[in-house]
Write a structure and sequence with these properties.
Radius of gyration: 17 Å
CATH superfamily of the largest domain: K homology (KH) domain
Helix content: 25-40%
Number of domains: 2
Low-confidence stretches: none
CATH class of the largest domain: Alpha Beta
Strand content: 25-35%
CATH architecture of the largest domain: 2-Layer Sandwich
Shape: elongated
Amino acid sequence: MNNLCKTVWKGGMNFESENASGHMVSIDVDVQDGGSGAGYRPKSLMLTALAGCSGIDVVSLFQKMKVPVRAFEIDIDARLTEEHPKFYDQVKVVYHFYGDQLDEKKLERCVELSVTKYCGVMEMFRRFSEVSTSCVFHHES
């Protein structure tokens, strides 16, 4: 299956990219790098894709397992290499779950399934980066 996107230069260092579903995203760089700072940086967009892909998996799984979760967040801390081409060589993904009836074992299983079976973006990252994951449970009872 092929995925298509069209990316159009809008001037300066700004681009607008449209995916096959018609959704748009603006891509730019910081002012000190010659841009206007009006959009996602390309590398941070990759981290956003990683969090979104895995997050969708995890939510789908905990909903199917009927695990009550009040809120869910993903934090990613990624280290860029020093030399060009710069890429993320270490990525730490932290899954935060909030609620008063958190089933830690089931939620850890949801994350494990996303990481090892379902999230294609996670698999892509593993091809060029050392990826670690952890879960933090915020019990509210």
